[in-house]
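Below sits my pick:
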Amino acid sequence: MLAVGIVTEVFGPHGESLPGFDLALCTDRPGPVPTDLGVPLTITHGLDRLASADLVIVLPCAGFRTPPAPAVLDALSAAHQRGSLVAAHCVGAFVLAAAGLLDGRRATTHWRFAGLLARRHPNVTVEPDALYIDEGRIITGAGAAAGFDLCLHLLRREYGAAVANAVARDVVLPSHRDGGQAQYLAAPVPEDCRDERLAEVLAWARENLHEPLPVAELARRAVMSKRSFARRFTAATGTTPHAWLRSLRLSSAEELLETTDLPVEEIARRVGYGSAAVLREQFVRRRGVPPRSYRRSFTNTP
């Protein structure tokens, strides 16, 4: 039920200013479908609904250790061959693997079952620590609430940072977590006064992206040594201060490219890069295209 809730929350209606989606739940046997909460869902759509879908997300189920019905595998393979994006959340990755769609690709799943996926499907490169892995038209995500990260990544990829950030704000979630970020954290929420200071420093950094923001300055504001700050930061966020800042700067640059006509030089300044050339280098390395090409793909601004 958590997986169903995540997908319907992200791709459900969010007001007229955001894209609307034709969302449907499908099964190979329409009718009442049991859930882990004991409350059955009545699903009316069969596998034929996949034939017109632009995006198919396979959700986790308790019976993932049992091979899926051949009709399910055939429908997923046909959707992929037709050009649909095919994604899987949590142990839904086992279904994509059974269909052969993960062969020769990297994939992730819930960390608890990553070893089982790797043993059953040796042609799949399983990365147990990733939140999600994007392999083009095949995307897999980790377990539980990481389904939000997968869905928001899909929105960001297809509709841009502004739309993904707006939906994230609507459902009160972080706007973006890198796919390579750890699935589980040693200290996922602030537990003491040091962590509260850390949270304040992160909020300050978000408001001051135009500044250089060296780790030494962040540590000073958190009243910690650089080593202690780096250790506490990684424990609280699952990534390093440098990687977190880079992701934040690029995400902010994406939104400004999509929603404003500011020159790239000004955007670079606002997000903390010394020049447009530095922003371009980071953008190409991390996003695969230069900033101006990215802007053209989401707006009509030249």
In short: Residues 184-194 have pLDDT under 50 and may be disordered. DSSP finds 13 helices and eight strands in the chain.
